[in-house]
Fold:
Amino acid sequence: MRNLTRCVHQPAVSHEGFAALVPGVHRASTIVFASAQDYRDRKQRGPDGYSYGLNGTPTARVLEAQIAALEGAAHCTLMPSGMSAISLVMLAVLRQGDRVLIPDSVYPPVRKFCATMLAGLGIAHSIYRPDASDLPGLLGADVRLIWMESPGSTTMEVQDLRAIAALARAHGILTGCDNTWATPLLLRPLELGVDIAMQALTKYAGGHSDILMGSVAVNDRDLYLRLKEARTTLGINVSPDDCSLALRGLASMGVRLAHAGRVALELAGHLRSFASVRRVLHPAFTDCDGSAIWAREASGHSATFTVQLEEPSVAVLDAAIEQARFFAIGASWGGAHSLMVPMTVDDIRNWPPVPGATYIRLSIGLEDPRDLRDDLDRVFGYLDAALAKAAAP
Ligand SMILES: *Cc1c(COP(=O)(O)O)cnc(C)c1O
Structure:
């Protein structure tokens, strides 16, 4: 072997005795085969085998297996964001002429995906009330998938996953649920009869505001094969470095979630005493639609909730949020840093019937709870003062 070749062909070294506690970061596009016949037979390696980097490396396999175990699923596949995990499910399952049902409280980009990309492919969608009261009337032979999200984005309605899954099953319709808010530590949709459990690992699993990733977990092998086929056909994969960060995040997710969830509940309770607060939308409180379902089916709360305000002006709302010293203004919750964003839910068509409602969405992080409480006192004290001033004769 000459030097130029030596530069390319790395020497084999022993791995004997190398027993790290955590999986290595395996990067690969090319996978090599021992023989020409092996290469020709590579499809026989199955959906979890290694034949090309697009199908992932052992780093991804560890994360997939860990998410599957947490969700109580037989299979899991990873996608480069939560949103792409949702679009993968829909593209894999739906065909021209099909219809998907989505709740009015769905993560808003899903509504856009249905209205633009799916509509362009000849796939229809209908929007149902989060409490599913109008769902039976929307069923039809063309409905292939019912999507759920519980609690819903921003307005936090809890859905009865068990009841909706049973209704869907009776009609031969697949169900999927966005389990990002709860994570499988608090809620396991597959155990309630849902076919597909999806998470934005970007949030609590990643946990540090530095990766984007999504997961899709299922029990049915044929469904898994369809998801993997769609993923490969679209040419999508996740980086092993990001998988490694998600694995690191998962190791501490339980304690982070328990701590932040407890602090969030305390702070949510504190916010109820402000005059400028109309409702605190948190599944622990009866103000939150479906809170009784949450008490029955879930085993705790994560640390993101919404406060509905007494409709301050945009200028007052913005100025109030800017009083915060520790809450950063930004989306994508579940990290170590507390976040706060102003929201209006003007595009919600039939739920809840509150036109012009104004909200603050909060994600509680890992800072000292006393500093967070002081920050909220500044923000909501400002809103209260503005409300009192507006009411003065
Ligand atoms: C953030 C979020 C997503 C999308 O995740 P990304 O990784 O940001 O694409 C999906 N569903 C819910 C409920 C989310 O909060």
Q: What stands out?
A: The domain at 252-391 is CATH 3.90.1150.10 (Aspartate Aminotransferase, domain 1). The mean pLDDT is 95. The CA atoms of residues 126 and 138 lie 7 Å apart. The pocket of pyridoxal-5'-phosphate is lined by residues 81-83, 107, 149, 153, 178, 180-181, 200, 202-203, 212, 214, 332 (CB under 6 Å).
